[in-house]
Amino acid sequence: MFKILKKEVLNTSVKLMEIEAPHIAKKAEPGQFIILRVNENGERIPLTIADYDREKGTVTIIFQEVGKTTRLLGQLNEGDLLLDFVGPLGVASHFEGLKKVAVIGGGLGTAIAYPQAKKLYNMGVEVDSIIGFRNKDLIILEKEMQAASSRLFVTTDDGSNGTKGFVTDILKKLIEEGNNYDLVIAIGPLIMMKIVSNLTKNYGIKTVVSMNPVMIDGTGMCGGCRITVGGRVKFACVDGPDFDGHEVDFDEAMRRQAMYKAEEKKSEEQHECRLGGIKNA
Amino acid sequence: MNVDWGESRMPNMTLEKVKMPEQDPNIRNKNFLEVTLGYTEEQAIEEAKRCLNCKNKPCVQGCPVNVNIPDFIQLVSEGKFEEAYQKVKQTNSLPAICGRVCPQESQCEHFCVRAKKGESVAIGRLERYVADKYMSDIALKPEKQQTNNKKVAVIGSGPAGLTCAGDLAKMGYEVTVFEAFHAPGGVLMYGIPEFRLPKALVQKEIDMLKFLGVDIKTNMVIGKVFSLDELFQQGYEAIFVGTGAGLPSFLGIPGENLNGVYSANEFLTRVNLMKAYKFPDCDTPVRVGKSVAVVGGGNVAMDAARCAKRLGAEKVYIIYRRSETEMPARIEEVHHAREEGIIFKLLTNPTRIVGTEDGWVKGIECTEMELGEPDSSGRRRPVAKPGSEHIVDVETVVIAIGQSPNPLIKSTTPDLETQKWGGIIADEETGATSIPGVYAGGDTVTGAATVILAMGAGKKAAKAIDEYIKGKSK
User: Fold this and answer.
1) How far apart are CA A250 and CA B165, in angstroms?
2) CB-based contact, B280 to chain A, within 8 Å
3) How many domains does chain A have?
4) In chain A, which residues have their Cβ closer than 8 Å to the Cβ of B181?
5) What value does the mean pLDDT take over residues B246-272?
6) For A37, A211, B92, B310, which has the most beta carbons within 10 A of its beta carbon?
7) ipTM value of the model?
């Protein structure tokens, strides 16, 4: 069992938890993920590691309550236990030989972009971070990103905070202004990573994206997480989750992401129904 | 023929095995309860009396773990069930499992003298009987051995790892088993379905190992959380790698990434380990639809097809490019699948999976085949019949054409030598690998094979590990 040592509400639907998992904390690197199960009948869900503290022996996860499992997880409190927590899985991000990098986080993706920005910044790399949200209420980790970046740019779709527009607007401007990035790291919704990758392709800037498809085991056993990269089939769990954004077939990934939409709805409805008790019986 | 008729015992010379009760095919194809129900005491004794107790025991040579078959059957015929169980248990640590999933027809029963005229003795069914009887009658309390204070790590808790762990624990070693999943059992849990191997039974066998003092640590992906070197640093004197054949193969035909295409591993893991058949009471879903094509002709393909049927698919096809003779699945499994209404499309080769505009499977395009000259495997090579292309309408496709060893350990242990196809290179007799103190066995060495072969390898490795550690401390 794995204890929740800290819980923090980041916005209406996004929560942060520090989980006691010393073995994983010792090995975790940015880019890697864990798989957790809340209870005995629960599903296994992958979450990218948002932070880790080797001394304290903790791994931080940040999740958005989008389905039954993440909602159940969100209902747990400090001191509660998770049934299963396994990792660190996947290949760590490669950061060798970089001088100037743009790190882009879209929505919840900011939580995954954060450890990358932090690691790069601590290595002495010049980090321009761009984080984008739908509106000001959804902004997360602004302070942390500020501390992990040479420059931080915040965008909101509705202009309620920071620049009105999308992360790509800022990225395009920065590139046009003559910033020479060795690498762009884009983490967020598939559609955002696709648009960023399309943009940087025009400028020939290497771009890494972090894929988060449906998974069961996370060790290469089921193949459920397969994606097409450069015309070849890859397993996101063991070959990734980082991939060359210019090579990923995003349209296929978006389609596969929606595979269990109907079932997810059913699962949640049943969950709501139970919470509702006799009212719906 | 050397036959010991005994004083008090007249053999039952009936040519056929005593039939084992089974659920009716049209009822069982709608539930996940066990298909075969096992012998009653009377049936077991009657069947045991068919054994001639031959002096040269050809059956024993056919058993990868050399169970003393005539002796235990003799005990069954005398109604001494607990002694029979102990006799089996001397060499086989998982009898309730082997009695169910071993391919007896090509092993022990294949060599049975009775099979020369009529059917062999039902060795598997008798093994199952004594194990089930023991486990239901007797409080489980195998004794923990006096520890020798020497630690051994076993990676993977499938049949190879569990056998190796059990044997080492019996010798007094302090054994820790590391399992990547949240539940131990490996393929016994995620692969073989409930209706063929009840999970409660696997759990009982695992509990027996815990009584012996084996420590099982789940959620531990060795290679990621600890390297082999780190395990040695933690004081483990030897390591057994039994990580199985977890990497699914795909056909490499167009359409394999469409929604609705599964590897057999994924399909079976969802159904068996994650209990998708109880969705939405269990949270993991699986999509089946009205019609399903399972590609492949092995036991895994049969399991997937029979699961799909039970999950409500009206039509379930087995698509296999050779003929029934070449099918690697056990005859009993093929027979059970047929009884349950699985449709066999033999000599049929899939060439493309056809999708709807929004990316869901709607059919599988196949070509009819005929058998040509034998290939390198000795089986006649299937050759396409020109102009025979046709589309089978299905909503789900399960690819069950094999698995190769999981590369996780290899990728983080550069000194560990492997075959080109990924199998760990290990000595056939001892399981010794290219790294001193590291042993390997089961599917991770041989590629996908059987539960009992993996157990045999685990057994040999346990013996070799014992010798290695004793030799080291001299």
Assistant:
1) 45
2) yes
3) 3
4) 217
5) 95
6) B92
7) 0.91
